[in-house]
Amino acid sequence: MKLVTMLLCAAALVNAQQALKRAPGFCLADTTGQWRDLYDYRGRVVVLEFMQTTCPHCAAFAPTLAAIAQRYTGRVQVLALALPPDTPATMLKFVEGHKPPYPLLMDMGQVAASYVRAPGLTFPRVYLIDAEGMIHGNWEETPLTKNIFEGNGLAQEIDKLLGTAKR
Questions:
Q1: Residue 5 placed within a domain
Q2: Across the beta sheet with 125-129, what order do the strands follow?
Q3: Domain count, the chain
Q4: What's the mean per-residue pLDDT of the chain?
Q5: Largest CB tally within 10 Å, which of 13, 86, 112, 118?
Q6: Is 10 contained in some domain?
Q7: Which residues contact 131 (CB under 8 A, 6 or more apart)?
Q8: Rounded to an integer, what distance in angstroms lies between the CA atom of residue 106 and that of residue 52?
Q9: Which stretches of the chain drop beneath a pLDDT of 50?
Q10: What string of DSSP letters covers 12-46?
Q11: Does residue 52 lie in a domain region?
Q12: pTM for the structure as a whole
């Protein structure tokens, strides 16, 4: 019985490693006109959020992302990508109102399509990318993911990647 359990655990580990996917690259302009290339953040963990400025859940998630950006300065980069019907004007209003300490970029849908390989996109949706550019997790806002979006679940996932998780 122990052998079967060990084999199942080993298979699960192998499958988990194979499940990692490389994060699709992109280069988009932020609200200041600066170009942001995902590759520029290699060596850091990246929290990538797909959002809309009119989404109440996205607005509620902004302080969590701000806290992540400040807590992990230099080790984690938060990037938020707004999608249509957002425009540069609506993005600037969001930045003025929420003052995020991380860049807000405009995606016309190409980047979202390369990440979300399913019909439809629920906002907010967040991807956790490791320092080598591999996706380690993604979550959309649902009652089951409340700890990621409203609690400290995202910080716990980041701590695991950084090797600073409490044991």
A1: no
A2: 21-22, 134-140, 125-129, 45-51, 76-82, 104-106
A3: 1
A4: 89
A5: 86
A6: no
A7: 42, 43, 44, 45, 161
A8: 10
A9: 3-17
A10: HHHHHHHH-EEPPP-EEEBTTS-EEEGGGGTTSEE
A11: yes
A12: 0.86
